[in-house]
Amino acid sequence: MPHPYIPATEDDRRRMLEAIGVASAEDLFNDIPAEYRSPDIYLPPPLSEVELVREMTALAAANGAASGMACFRGGGAYNHFIPSAVAAIISRGEFATAYTPYQPEVSQGTLQTIFEFQSMVCELTGMDVANAGMYDGASALAEACLMACAVTGRERIAILASVNPHAIAVVKTYALGRGHPVDVLWDSEVDSLLTPEHACLAVQQPDYFGRVSPDADAWAEAAHRRGALFIASVEPVSLGMFRPPSAYSADIAVGEGQPLGVPLNFGGPYVGLFACRQEYVRHMPGRIAGRTNDVDGRTGYVLTLQTREQHIRRERATSNICTSQQLVALAFTVTLCLLGKTGLRRMAELCYHKAHYAASRISSLPGYRLVFDGPFFNEFVVACPRSIAEVNERLRIGAFWAGSTAPISYRTTGTVPGTRCSLPSRR
Asked: What pTM value is reported for the model?
C-alpha cells in the first residue's frame, strides 16, 4: 500500500507527463530563461541566538511606533487606544488557537463570540442580519457589490469616486473575474449616470475625505428608483454619533472593523463588517452563527448558514471566502463590550471634536486652508502652500509641533492640494 503522504508514484508522474505532452517535469519550466531557474543565493553566515536577537532588536528599533508619533495618514486605518483587556482575552488558548468551528459540539465558545459579534454589527448598523466577518472592509465592499449583482440579476456596478481608492481597486479586481463592469461616478453624476442596468450604488459614509454627506437619503432613493441596491460602507466609530445606514435605507452595510480593538499591524489582519436586510440573507457571502436550543432545552450555538463553496455545490456558492476572522472579530467584540453605548458615543465625540480642533489650528496657519466645507469625521483635506513631501517630512521631524523653534519657510510655487490629515482619538 503506498504511503498516504506521497502524492504520486513514478508511474503516476510518467502518465501525467504523457497526458500533457512533455518528457519531464523540467520541461515545464522551459519558458523561464535558464539563468533564472536556479540562481545562486548568497546568504550571510548563520548567527547564534544571541547574535540574532541583537540584530533583530536593532532592526526593530529603526521603526517608529505609531503610538509614539503624530499619525496623520488616516485613510481607513487608525491608531486608536486599545484596552489591555482585549489582548488578555483574545490571547487565551481557546480563542487564539481556534480556527473554523465546523464541529459545534466542541466549538461553543467560539460560536458564541461570533454570534455576539454579529449581534453587535446589527446593532451598530441597524440592519437585520450580519455574517461572521470578512477579510477586511475593502473585500466586504467588493463582496457586497457581487451580492447585489446576484440579487438583481444585473451586471453593472456603480460606485462613488469618494470611496477609498484602495477599496475601489478591490471592487474592480473582484468584478473583473465575474465580467462585471464597474462605473466610478462623481457625487453630482448619480442622477444622470446611474441607470436601470446597474445592480447597485456603493457609497462611503463618511467618505474617503472624511466628509459626512447629507445626500445619503437622496443616493438611496436614486438607487431604489432604478431597481438597484444601495450599499453603504461605514466607519464603525462614527456610528456612535451619526445615523446608522439603515436610517438612510441602505440594503447592505459594510465597513472596516479595525478602528475598534485592532492595532495597525502593518495593514492587517483586519476584519470586514457585513450586514444586510433579511430578504437578502440567502445571497450573503460567508457564514452565519446562530443560537438555538438542544434536545434538553439548553442554549447552543451552531453555524446556521454556510454558503461557501466548501459546503455546498460550487455553482450555488455565494462566495469563496474561506478563512476565519474569528480572532480579530473577537477583539472588535471585546472592545465594544468594554466601551458600551456611552463609551462608543464618547469615543466618537472625541474623534469628531479633535479632528475639528486640528482642522481649525491648521487652517489658521498662513497659506493653509480646508478644501471642503461641511461636517467631517476623523479626517479632512488640507490645501498646502508647499509640497506634500515637505509637509510630511516636517511633520516627521516634529517641526510643526508645540515646543519647536524651527522656522517655517513657505514656497511661492502655489498650492498643492490633497494632503490628508487625520487625528486619531486619544481616550
From this structure: 0.81
